[in-house]
Model the fold of this input.
Amino acid sequence: MRRIFPDHAYSNARIAGCYWADTVSDAALSRPALKGAQKADVAIIGAGFTGLSAALALAEAGVSVSVLEAGFPGWGASGRNGGFCCLGGAKASDAMLDRQHGKPARLAYRRAEASAINHVADTLEKHSIQADVHSKGETQLAHNARVNFEKDARAIEENYGVTPTLHTREELPALGMSGQFHSAITTPVGFGLNPRKYLAGLLKAAEAAGVQVFGQSPVNKINRAQKYSLATPQGTLEAEQLIVATNGYSSEDVPEWMAARYMPAQSSVIVTRELTETELANGWNSDQTAYDSRTLLHYFRLMPNRRFLFGMRGGLMSTKASEARNRRQIRADFEAMFPAWSQVETPFYWSGMVCLAAGLTPFAGPVPEMSGAYAGFAYHGNGVAMGSYTGALLADQILGANKLHTPKLMAKPPKRFPLGRARRALMYGVYAGAALKDL
Ligand SMILES: Cc1cc2nc3c(=O)[nH]c(=O)nc-3n(C[C@H](O)[C@H](O)[C@H](O)COP(=O)(O)OP(=O)(O)OC[C@H]3O[C@@H](n4cnc5c(N)ncnc54)[C@H](O)[C@@H]3O)c2cc1C
Done:
C-alpha cells in the first residue's frame, strides 16, 4: 500500500487514547485474518461505515459478501469519530454546487444528506442497536458578532425542507449553551451517537446476515483476470465484484485508479472526565450536538454520561511531536471556548483521517475502467451518516435495485488533485486561508 502520510498516521499510536475503546474494546471488534484461497460474489475493502453498510444491504439481498479490513472493523475513522450523525458530506457551498452541477442537482444532493441521517436512524431501530443517541438536531454557534445566520436559515429551508430556529446571544445560557458564542441556529435534523456502538451493531447485523469479515487483512494488490483477486499477506479473495471503501485510509495503488483522487486530512478529539452538576451549571449543559461557525470548525457535545466531547481539525504533519503539539492546541481551544472548565481534565485524546475530494463532493459509484468495481469516499469529515448511506447506495447500484437513487453529483468520479503524492502541500494554503477567514 502506497499512502501519502508518514507511517505514524496509520499506526495504533493514534488511537491509544480513544475514549470509545472504553465502551467497545478493540478486542471485541477484532476478527481473524483471511487465510488461503476464498471466494465471494462481492469483495469489500475496508470495514468502516461505508464497507459494512454495503455488506449488510448486499447480504440481506442474498449476495455472498466478504469484507477485508487491514486493522479491526472500525479501526479507521468509523471507530474513532465524534459521533455526529449530521447533515453534510460535501464541503462545496450551494453557490458552487449550482455553478458546477445546476440547482436541481444541488437540491437532490442536499435531500440525500437528510436521507442519510434517516438511513442511520432506521438501521439503529431495525437492528436494535443501542448507541447512546441524544440531541434534537444540531446547533451551530456564532464565533463572532459578524456572523448572521438569517441567510443560512433560508438556505436550510430550501435544501432540507425544514425550518431552523434562530437564537440570540441572550437566549443561549437558558438553553444550556454557555461559552464564547454570539448567536446560534438550530436545524432540527441529526443526532449524536456512540460511533463504536453503532459500528459494533452494524458488524453484528452484517455477520448475522451472512457476511464474512476478516481483520488484519490488508489488501496489498488487486489482480484482475476473469474475476477480481485480492491479495492479503496470508490469503487471496476472488470475487466478481468489488467495493473500495477505504476513505481517508486509502492508498495510491489499491486500486491504481485511486491515486491522487482523495485527500486525507486529520481531525482530533478530546473527551473530559464526567462533569459534576456544578461544572455543568457553570458551563455547557445542553444535550444538543453543536459546532461553531468557523471554517476550521470545532464540534462538541455533552454525552448522555455527562462527559464532554470536543473536536477540531488536526495538524498537517503526523509525527509523535506534531501529535503532542496538536493535543496542546485542542486543549487550548477547549479552554478558550469554555473558560469555566479550564480546570476540567481531558484524559482522552486521539486523532484520525477524514477525506476530501477535489470537487468537494462525495463519490458513490462505479470505478471507470474497472468493470464490476465500485468506490465510495470523500465525506469531508461528515461520514457517519453519509458514509453509511453511501454503502447502501453502492449496494443498491450493484443490485440494480434503484430503490435509493444516487444523486447525480455523487456518481461523478472525482478528478485528480494536482501534485500527485505531494498533494498534502496544498493543504497549507487551504488552512492558512481558512484561518484568516475565521479571525
Ligand atoms: C477524529 C474524527 C472525528 C470525526 N467526527 C465525525 C463526526 O462527528 N461525524 C461525522 O459524520 N463524521 C466524522 N468523522 C468522519 C467519519 O468518521 C468518516 O467520514 C467515516 O467514518 C468514513 O467511513 P468509511 O467506512 O468510509 O472509512 P473508515 O472508517 O476510515 O474505514 C476505512 C477502512 O479501510 C481500511 N483499509 C484501508 N486500506 C485498506 C486495504 N488496502 N486493505 C484493507 N483495509 C484497508 C482501514 O483500515 C479503515 O478501517 C470524523 C473522523 C475523524 C477521524
